[in-house]
Amino acid sequence: MSAGTADGDSPDDDAANRGGDQTERTPLRRSETGRWDGIAGVALALVGVGVVARQPGLVLTGAVGVGYAVYARIGEAPEATIEVERTVSDDTPAPDDDVVVTVRAHNVGDAALPDLRLVDGVPPGLEVVDGPARIATALRPGATAAFEYTVRASRGEHEWEPMRGITRDAAGSQERTTELATPTRIVCTPELSAGGDLPLRGLTTIYHGRVPTDVGGAGVEFHATREYRRGDPVKRIDWNRRARTGELATLELREERAATVVLLIDARESAYAAAEPDADTAVEASVQAAGQAFTALLDGGDRVGIATLGPRDCWLSPGAGTTHAARGRETLATDPALAPTPSEGRFYQSLWLRRFRRRLPADAQVLFFTPLLDDSAASLAHRIDAHGHLVTVLSPDVTAGDTPGTRLVAFERRERLRELRAAGIRAVEWGDRSFPVAVARATGRWSR
Amino acid sequence: MSRREAIDDGAESRGAADDRERDAHPPTLAVVGSLVASAVAALSAFLAAPLGGALVGLATVGFLAGSLRRSPRILSLAAGVGVIGIGLAGYLRGAVEPLLAAGVALALAWDLADHGISVGEQVGRETRTRRNVAVHAGTNLLAGGLSVAVVYGVYLAAAGNQPVAALALLLFGAVALASALR
């Protein structure tokens, strides 16, 4: 809900009345800027020299200096009696949409603000793409200043932080900071696009699905032949063999079953890494890929759940159906555990692993999305795999290779991938290539 | 208090992140205004005494350098050089009127440049700051103008009656009063 539409009693309500109960003002600190320090001394020195040299010009100039000293001392920094009204052009934008934010600051106090600087609290997950979210102005009582800027929407729920109002007195010798909190938020939920076919490993449920298994039965792909038993369907009798040898044999086909999959996303602070300062973080890439995997798996009839590896708890138990699809979409888009900036709090891996294992259904396999930037991610994959939940590691490549340090990180990450593969854990990495392309390439190498 | 500090830290780290994109140089209007004012100061001081005018001219260069390097310290130094220039011009028997004009213009020049640096730091150069800077310059000029009016009025009224020593005493009184006020 945008600030502008939060409250509308009557059409002729002006900004002052509307803002009256919106902005919460918190005085933060007062300080002396000390910029006029020494002016009195300089002025008196001039006067002194003038007296000694008997030069009226000098004395008068010094006297004017004393005037400035008085000017610097009178008055004090007024409190920023500002009502802030913030309007966003779209409070449910799609990712990468430009959202125009219009801020109107209205001086509701009785005193003029001769020197007012406003710095808007843009949410940390949003990038300002046009115009600074700031203004420096002067406001008479009842006057309004407006400015607007554009942010680029990114996945998640973004709440504006309090705006900072910095006021100074006319001479600028005192400064006062006030926080002006006006609640504004935008929610950006990406559409989940279905990524191509995601190959799963052989751990399946008893339900029919599309993961080929080593169990003979009904299916499409040839598995084995066995001798005919009474009651076998006529369609599955191997008539060629009957013609050749006269024996009856039954074709066994590979049974295709559904799997239970948990998408585990690494959202520890170390995963909030990107190749460049303004590029997408590994968490962002993981969430995007997990969204594609989620849709693809759900469409394939598998039961899919979501979990995060991080200080904040996030768990969506495996399920199927349209409600589950909507819930998964919402979790990936706006869950605080997957916010665009790292969650606060400490992360205890052993505690987390215990809880995760307790929740994980016995027949679930894990798709682990991690940039593999530390050893604990790799060892976690090993441990989950060892507990019988087949793990596929999907790793967005966020390493850069421009300095020796980053090259070392990239090298270590490649080593971890190699070790994982050597231990029989499937691993896909993708960097510049899109996730489905990387999966399709990797699938060619895998045997079932 | 700790919450407050946390908020402050947050704002500072946010500021640091912003600095990648934000140009923290002082706004153009403040820099240009400061240069014009200090040129006027140099000209007035030059009319009073050429040597003093040269020193105030040096202060102009200092204001420009301080604005470009965003250093209030350089500005203070330049203002100091300017004051010495005016003092020298006065000592060399400069006329009263150009000295007063030079003093007011020098104060305005320093004030605008310093104000510009703080505005640039807090809101950046691309931001709309015109009104803020104009109001600041206006109040400064008003304060300077009032001081000159009072001082020059007293000077004209008291001309001949040993104005220098009397005025000096009056000034000490004014400073004492101003200190007592705060």
Note the main sheet of chain B. Answer: none
Beta-strand share of residues of chain B:
under 5%
Number of domains of chain A: 4
Helix content of chain A: 25-40%
Mind telling me the CATH class of the largest domain in chain A?
Answer: Alpha Beta
Question: Helix and strand string of chain A, N-terminal first?
Answer: HEHHEEEEEEEEEEEHEEHEEHHEHEHEH
The assigned structural class of chain A equals alpha+beta
Shape of chain B: globular
Instruction: Write down the oligomeric state.
Output: heterodimer
The level of helicity of chain B is over 70%
* Integer count of domains of chain B: 1
Instruction: Give the N-to-C terminal Cα separation of chain A.
Output: 50 Å
Overall radius of gyration of chain B = 20 Å
Query: Can you tell me the residue ranges of chain A where pLDDT is under 50 for at least 5 consecutive residues?
Result: 1-20
Q: Could you walk me through the main structural features you see in this protein, from its secondary elements to its overall organization?
A:
The complex is a heterodimer of chains A (448) and B (182). Chain A has 448 residues and is of the alpha+beta class. Chain A has 4 domains: 3-28 and 78-188, Immunoglobulins (Immunoglobulin-like, Sandwich); 39-73, no CATH class; 213-257, no CATH class; 260-445, Rossmann fold (3-Layer(aba) Sandwich), CATH 3.40.50. Helix content of chain A is 29%, strand content 32%. Chain A has helices spanning 15-19, 39-53, 56-73, 239-245, 282-299, 322-334, 349-359, 375-386, 404-422, 435-445; strands spanning 24-32, 82-88, 98-107, 113-121, 127-130, 134-139, 144-152, 156-159, 161-168, 174-181, 185-188, 208-227, 249-257, 260-266, 303-309, 315-319, 364-369, 391-396, 426-430. Chain A has a 6-stranded mixed sheet with strand order 16-15-14-17-18-19, with helices on both faces. In chain A, strands 1-10-9-4-6 form a 5-stranded antiparallel sheet, with no helix packed on it. In chain A, strands 2-3-7-5 form a 4-stranded antiparallel sheet. In chain A, helix 9 links the parallel strand 18 (391-396) and strand 19. In chain A, helix 2 packs antiparallel against helix 3 and helix 5 runs antiparallel to helix 6 (322-334). The longest helix of chain A has 19 residues, at 404-422. The radius of gyration of chain A is 33 Å and the shape is elongated. Chain A starts with 14 loop residues before the first helix and ends with a helix. Chain B is mainly alpha-helical and 182 residues long. Chain B has one domain (2-129). Chain B is 84% helix and 0% strand. Chain B contains 7 helices and no strands. Mean pLDDT of chain B is 80; it is low at 1-20. Chains A and B meet through helix 2, helix 3, strand 4, strand 6 and strand 9 of A and helix 1, helix 4, helix 5, helix 6 and helix 7 of B.
